[in-house]
């Protein structure tokens, strides 16, 4: 009988950590029968960032993905990652939404719910755990592991005791950044085994290069369940390779009982699949011991890299990684795991790109400081808090206690495009994004972001590598600097350029086709494009409202003729999955508005003009 149980992460956390969660369902299905035959304790295949990525990038219904995987994996537990009261979004949801989401997840195929809270605030886990148990499924409660002046083993033991009291079936040490060292892991597991009677499940990323040694000491101390990822998507920002851990424990008292040879087909298959997603690979997915300082989790680093590429700021990654610990300290040392990892990371990016700490602050940071995510582990920097939220009252109760039931309102708001309660729950997670997704799905017009052909892209890069150049048109020469790009769809893409110092957004849209050589066997590929530029003026006086990062307008809060004070919110944009309120730079009257909800915007464009008074 196996002494150590293995949860395989190649369908979820591995691709999230390595290729920014871009693996499509069609690339999972051909190997599911083999995965199902190995004998893993569970296969993690849903939750985390998969829900967001399915809707935002892959244009797949996440619920349909779950149903398809359930059918393809009849003999293996399917596991998901659930963010407690945050579910799979970036805010707290009312209790009725949490219960509905858990029920529907269970009905559609989830067996094991791994439930965590970014703040380790156990109040935010209670309703989720209760709902899982009511559904007759396995509730695994998490300790979000981190290191700081306010975290230690006795505190983690107290959390484990609370999880046991909540009714959890197992306890997971969730080391999302790979911070656990071997002997600390031994001491922690030993202390947990002495305090609780539940099995201990260890999740540790390989980013720091320590996870293999950490696993060995953890099983020696009494951990009986380990998270690993097939080597095709393992190691570095991902997890210790399944094959390596199986081999290391074979013939010992901790033998997994799994057949190493039987896994080779899985490894060969996913090694080929990974090549399709080369464009989402980042330079930050290998071993990086800086994580022991910046604590950026494995699931965040590839997404952060991808987002900085979109901002044409990948060269500033080191500055962002240096800034993250400083923001985290100001916020009272929260563990960096979704959503706090995204909140802290996005704020660090803003601090770096604006050149001034907290000049621009996301709404999520403000909500965090107001207690809307739960109790901060440590003391929040008082000057920082004063600067951002002033003397506003901080919530001390369980945040969800302040929320009214939402399901009836959500159903009413989405009745024209939601065809099921699952659709309503998708809308609850990401209202604007989901509305567009569901409308396109209903119209059968969904198109996933394109996968680029590496050979063609490499050849193109060799020919067109410069991002700064001069163009002469009708005898006039223009200095062009490409500053960033985005994604609209298969036939349309925005590029952010500077033309003689004036910021423009160029929309490249396919109009007709011309033949270019390429493809296998001397075949032909077709492509052509045209462009238009943004008509928004460049900032030219102090009252011009701008954004620090490219993003999408979520809300226009001001109207022409409104009187505003310096610091009043006039716009809300979404950038890097976070909402950022753009404030008036001065007292005055709104005299022009150059944007509307849904518009894509770029830095150095005038979005609103304010006449000083």
Number of helices: 21
Could you list the spans in which at least 5 consecutive residues all have pLDDT below 50? 513-533
- Overall pLDDT score: 87
* SS-based class: alpha/beta
Oligomer: single chain
Question: How widely separated are the two ends?
Answer: 79 Å
Sheet with the most strands, sense and barrel status: 8 strands, parallel, barrel
Give the helix level as a range of percent.
Answer: 25-40%
Number of strands: 23
- Based on Cα principal axes, name the global outline: globular
Q: Can you list the strand order of the major beta sheet?
A: 1-2-3-4-5-6-7-8
Radius of gyration: 25 Å
Strand content: 15-25%
Question: How would you describe this structure to a colleague?
Answer:
This protein has 613 residues and is α/β, with parallel strands linked by helices. The protein is 35% helix and 20% strand. The protein has 21 helices and 23 strands. It has an eight-stranded parallel barrel, surrounded by five helices. The protein has a five-stranded antiparallel beta sheet with strand order 9-10-11-12-15, with no helix packed on it. The chain has a four-stranded antiparallel beta sheet with strand order 16-23-21-18, with no helix packed on it. Strand 4, helix 6 and strand 5 form a beta-alpha-beta unit. Helix 19 crosses helix 20. The longest helix has 15 residues. The radius of gyration is 25 Å and the shape is globular. The N and C termini lie far apart (79 Å).
Task: Name its key features.
613 residues, alpha/beta, 8-stranded parallel β-barrel, 5-stranded antiparallel sheet, 21 helices
